[in-house]
Target: Shikimate kinase
Amino acid sequence: MAEKRNIFLIGPMGAGKSTIGRQLAQILGMEFIDSDGEIEQRAGADISWIFDVEGEAGFRKREERIINELTQRQGIVLSTGGGAIVSKETRNHLSARGIVVYLETTVDKQHQRTLRDKKRPLLQDVADPRQVLEDLAKVRNPLYEEIADITMSTDEQSAKTMANQLIDLLEEFSSVN
Model:
């Protein structure tokens, strides 16, 4: 990949977007940005607090603005929040401004990975977090698939192995397109 095109990682919470994204950016010598981290930094508050104060709709508006801005940069690896693709505008920005990689995982794996994570507002104070993940998957998986240039399962291997496999897939994609 001679020219450094933007790489945007999408997928459900717990798919490994941030972990794999950091590895990928490091290997490629690109800047890594986590949209959730950027939102927290700019707001001076964590996402759970933003959800409490602004609700999910307020958070999504904020997320849409920040992703619009971030996707206009060049040569970045951007990890998006699991629900970022709910916004049609965000989906359009992602697919128009870089290579979109859908990191796919099963609900079982998500549940395992997010079980003790207190930074997931949609999974807090719910009777059945697994059911929430299943419901989100029904709505969001088709949206991830709609804009993905590359789809990769993240269920079994280490982040470093997956980042290296992803580089091969990105090179294949770039040579075809």
